[in-house]
Amino acid sequence: MSAAAAPAAVVTVQELRKRYSGAPVDAVDGISFDVREGEIFGLLGPNGAGKTTTIGTITTRVRPTGGRVTVDGFDVSRQPVEVKQRIAVVPQRPNIDRSLTALENLVFHAAYFGEPRATRRRRAEELLVQMGLEGRGGDKVDNYSGGMAQRLMIARALMHEPRVLILDEPTTGLDPQSRLFLWETMTDLRARGVTLMLTTHDMAEADRLCDRIAIVDHGKVIALDTPRGLRRLLPSEHGLEVVVAGTEPFEDAEGAAEEDRWRGRVYGEVTPTQMARRVAESGRELIELRTLEGSLEDVFVHLTGRELR
Amino acid sequence: MNPGSASVKAFFALCERDLYVTVRRDLLPFLSQSLLQPIFFLFVFGRVLPEIGAAQGAYGAQLLPGVLALTLVLTALQNVALPLIIEFSFSMEIEDRLLAPLPVTWVAVEKLLIATLRGIVGGLLILPLGELILPGGIDLSGASIPALIVMIVVGGVVGACIGLLLGTAVPPNRIAVAFGLILTPLIFTGATFYPWQALDSLRWFQIITLANPMTYVSEGMRGALTDTPHLGAGWVALGIAVSLAVFGTLGVRGFRRRAVD
Asked: Where are the beta strands (DSSP E) in A46-187?
């Protein structure tokens, strides 16, 4: 995609640096990226990589030591109120107002953002239904499970219709069912035009959800691309899986026979077109041909030489 | 919405939330936390001691302004400090307010305002309680109502500012120790149970008590309610101004530091 055709950036982070007072090294050491309108953008990296600090700066809770961060064109350091009007945050740890019921949490949150009194309650009830919390609005939030608290926080975040919804490690500690629900919700929100940004150390999650991913390590972005683009960084990307008719081995491919066919892998600089031609020239029928893709886990290992943990 | 009016709306919405919680959820805990100790002070020192001859009957008139000041300052102080310590650590509830579209300093000011209001309510309730508990009831004939109103308001603000500093400076695992170490001297060296003037014969203690902001609130209250000798109005004003400047500045600075890393 050319730069001109790319949708406008909602969040821009330029050469962001952050050193906490008393810390010997920068927690964030020159990070740059854009979050584009309508996409799901992921910050992927191990714990301590600088993801939460980066999120903290975008949400005005962490003051940058250097660089520039804007949301919808507003500078997070100089125009924090404008920035806060446009973002919503679902934090890592529940921060629900425990003196209030679930419904009151949503209604008061909307009030903080100047939503008219008449629409607050209706919208809150709609969102409770949407988040699978119908009939639980009057509950004290102390009685909420981790998954329910998370859904309530997402409902709360959507109350003021933010330009960008930021989720910090949203699925950490959730049961599989809640996690699936969250994934569906996020895809759904994107379909409705909400821009989402999330941090995660879960490769599968990033791969499944994100349109683009920045891999962060030691306070730096070490790669930024679509999940597919990132996989292309792998040497094994230059491999093909080929299935041909007949059980005898095909050229020098490593593989095995399967019933009436032979399935093998070819590594090295060979394109699918070349491979298809070679199969045709050999006189055998091509049944299947696909490029081998590694996992994001492999990409991380390839880039850092370390396992993601 | 432009950021200025968004901030004003957010500020009032935060106030609305706190008032709603005070009235609908916290009323009994709030009143008991605020009034239990003063009720016992009034009863034991103002009623029991004169009854058994350990204090003069007129002592109640000296005690009342002190207990009123104490209630005012401590209620405001605790209603900022305790919630803040918890909201900044265990519950993280402060985050939703810090992310509301208003400057973080306004969030601190909102906390001060609500705590001051709570302090004022607690303080005002001391008057009917005094009437009920003290042997001679309360006598407002020598009182200056404008001075009383001014003292009640500024007393609450002083307490809230001290609370803001404590609430942002005390780590959650030290709440009990810190409050014991700070509140006890605050209560007993603040001219609460005796007029400051009467300490002439205990000069060193009289001097020490000048370092306690409570002294100025108690003495100001004594001046507003009674015609007994008290610390001069100028000194009271100066003491309160200095307390407000010091605790207000340090409190807001502490809050900002906790709010934005």
From this structure: 66-71, 74-75, 87-90, 164-168
Query: Measured over all CA atoms, what is the biggest interatomic distance in chain B, rounded to whole angstroms?
Result: 67
User: How far is Cα A307 from Cα A64, in angstroms, rounded to an integer?
Assistant: 29
Amino acid at A226: T
Angstrom CA distances, B214 to B45, B221, B251, stand at: 19, 10, 17
- Give residue A92's pLDDT: 85
pLDDT one-digit tens code per residue, B200-218: 899 999 999 999 999 999 9
Q: Determine contact: B200 vs chain A, CB below 8 A.
A: no
Task: Name the closest residue on chain A to residue B102, using Cα atoms.
Answer: A81
Q: Are A81 and B7 inside 8 Å of each other by CB? A: yes
Q: How many CB atoms lie within 10 A of CB B127?
A: 16
Q: Which residues of A touch B261 (CB under 8 A)?
A: 20, 56, 61-63
Contacts of A61 in chain B (CB under 8 A): 95, 98-99, 259-261
Q: What is the spatial distance between Cα B35 and Cα B40, in angstroms, rounded to a whole number?
A: 9
Provide the shortest C-alpha distance from residue A56 to chain B (in Å): 9
Is-above-0.95 flag for pTM? no
Q: Closest residue of A to B9, CA-based?
A: A114
Contacts of A96 in chain B (CB under 8 A): 93, 96
Q: What is the DSSP letter of A116?
A: -
Tell me if B111 sits within 8 A of B85, measured CB to CB.
no
**Tens of pLDDT along B144-166?**
899 999 999 999 999 999 999 99
**Helix or strand or coil: residue A137?**
coil
CA distance A137 to A161: 20
The answer to whether residue B257 neighbours chain A at the CB level (below 8 Å) is: no
Interchain contact, A81 vs B26, CB within 8 Å: no
Mean pLDDT comparison of A185-189, B152-156, B167-171, B232-236, highest-scoring range: B152-156
B35, two tokens: 């009034």
- Largest separation between any pair of C-alpha atoms in chain A: 75
CB A242 within 8 A of CB A231: no
Q: Backbone dihedral region of A30: left (phi > 0), alpha (psi from -120 to 50 degrees) or beta?
A: left
A42-97 pLDDT per residue, tens:
999 888 889 999 999 999 999 999 999 999 999 999 999 999 999 999 998 889 99
Residue A35: CB atoms within 10 A of its CB come to 25
Do the chains contact at A114 and B91, CB–CB below 8 Å?
A: no
Instruction: Choose the closest CB to A85 out of B20, B94, B101.
Output: B101
Exposure string of A188-205, with b = 16+ CB inside 10 Å and e = fewer, is ebbeeebbbbbbbbbbeb
Nearest-CB residue to B16 (from A88, A94, A111): A111
A120 to chain B, closest Cα gap in Å: 13
Of residues A121, A145, A105, the one with CA closest to residue B96: A105
Are A95 and B17 inside 8 Å of each other by CB? no
Contacts of A91 in chain B (CB under 8 A): 92, 95
Q: How high is the ipTM of this complex? A: 0.89
* Distant-in-sequence, close-in-space partners of A35: CB < 8 Å, separation ≥ 6: A9, A10, A11, A12, A41, A164, A195, A197
